Amino acid sequence: MKKTGGCMCGAVRFTARDVPSHFGACHCEMCRRWTGSALLGVTVPEESVSWEDETHLKRITSSHWAERGFCDQCGTGMFFRVTQEGVWSGNIEFPIGVFDDPNGFEMDNEIYIDHKPDSFSYAGEGRKLLTRADCVVKFSVLGDG
Questions:
Q1: For 91-95, which contacts have Cβ atoms below 8 Å and span 24 or more sequence positions?
Q2: Could you tell me if 12 and 78 are in contact, meaning their C-beta atoms sit under 8 angstroms apart?
Q3: What is the C-alpha separation between 2 and 17, in angstroms, rounded?
Q4: pLDDT in tens, 100-132
Q5: DSSP string, the chain
Q6: What's the CA gap between 114 and 130, in Å, rounded?
Q7: Which of 43, 35, 34 minimizes the C-alpha distance to 62?
Q8: What's the pLDDT at 48?
């Protein structure tokens, strides 16, 4: 599906094509601190994203293998992106809240489930659940340093 989105103040806008209908939740400490909660994100191929104007889109290196993008005017967290070459590079993880219409998604996975605060609970069943150890195995870049 095609979706448009942007930051809170409108300085950063984008159009994303090939947006899947499923999303996941990441409960790692970095995502919790960045979003103030869990990162509820949808993965979009980088080549499917076009930015209207990148003037106010800033990036910060958040680990030795990834970056996060944000609006330098209002501070909205716009995306998470793996920068290290490999199987997980080339994708942008958008928080579903930055889409103009955040409807039409279904949660199908939660990662770092063993780091999820005990007060968090999502409705529905059948999601794939991965612990931190599972993530280190699946996303080998996490084990590098």
A1: 91/43, 91/44, 91/45, 91/46, 92/16, 92/43, 92/44, 92/45, 92/46, 92/49, 93/39, 93/41, 93/42, 93/43, 93/44, 94/5, 94/16, 94/41, 94/42, 94/44, 95/35, 95/39, 95/40, 95/41
A2: yes
A3: 4
A4: 999 999 999 999 999 999 999 998 889 999 999
A5: --EEEE-SSSSSEEEESS--SEEEEE--HHHHHHHSS-EEEEEEEGGGEEES--TTEEEEEEETTEEEEEETTT--EEEEEE-SSSTTTTEEEEEGGGBSS--S-EEEEEESGGGS-TT-----S--EEE-HHHHHHHSGGGG--
A6: 8
A7: 34
A8: 97
Tokens, residue 40: 């509820």
User: What does residue 86 show for φ and ψ, rounded to 5 degrees?
Assistant: 150, -170
- The structure's pTM equals 0.91
